[in-house]
Amino acid sequence: MNLDSMKDILAAARREEKPLWEIIVETDMENRGATREDSFAKMAQAWHAMLDASDSYNGKRRSASGLVGGQGEQMRAYAAAGDPIAGGFAAEVITEALCMGESNACMRRIVAAPTAGACGVMPAVLIPLYRRDNIPEEKMLEAMFVASGIGAVIAYRACIAGASGGCQAEIGSASAMAAGALVTLRGGTPEQVCHAVAMALKNLLGLVCDPIAGLVEVPCVKRNVIGAMNAMAAADMALAGIESRIPVDEVIDAMGDVGRRLPVEFRETALGGLAVTPTGKAVKERMLGKRNKNRTLTIKDARWKLQRTSSSH
Fold this sequence. Notes:
Layout: H1 6-16, H2 20-32, H3 36-55, H4 71-81, H5 88-105, H6 121-133, H7 137-157, H8 162-165, H9 167-185, H10 190-203, H11 220-239, H12 248-261, H13 278-312
Helix pairs in contact: 1-2, 2-3, 2-7, 3-7, 4-5, 5-6, 5-11, 6-9, 6-11, 7-9, 9-10, 9-11, 10-11, 10-12
């Protein structure tokens, strides 16, 4: 089957009396001509890369712009020293989201889930839960298959790129994927997974993409935090039996429509929103000045080398 709608995946799960992840694994096997072992091995590779990115975080690193770095370490220290308002587990989630987003900005290896700009959302909710509850890796992979199926449906029916649909398509999609994964890990029903996805995506509907100086740093890294917290809220609501009044596929379609209607200024062009605030403009000018200076030095160096080569002959 194709991952064209959550309705179709849900219907297949009911018809065949299988969990959602099983339907998605079988679809992957069919589409790629892969064995079950190959499919799980590929997902395990992504999961291990997430864990490695988390373990290798270094709070001393800074992005080339200097805008990002060290905030994950700050959050970790704050949580360890006091009593975070949202509680210890939520503080870990916030910390993980910041660390992963910073790692992306600092050009470290991350997992695009579904994009690099939204790479912190899924690890932020999955890794702390995995470590706290000692969840078997197989269960984590099953949850990630559910998340990947959700992402595939969103990509097919709407979009997952900020340039196409704004940040709702990146952080929103990642949050929906994470919410579905969390419900799966907690033994929720397929229907509850769909409600969680719908609520998570609805909560971020219309979120614009307005990166300062065109860099995936500000406000992108901190938006990973809100995506992760939103995913937890949506998952808990769904597990409590709260339902989305709008069916999940209709929510996804609405997100796609909103994305197409967003002015170009709010779709990763850095021409609107926070990017054109006085401070946003000042950062851009500083970055342009630094680039031009480096370019000038490079040109001078090239000319000097050319002159030396010519004089030697």
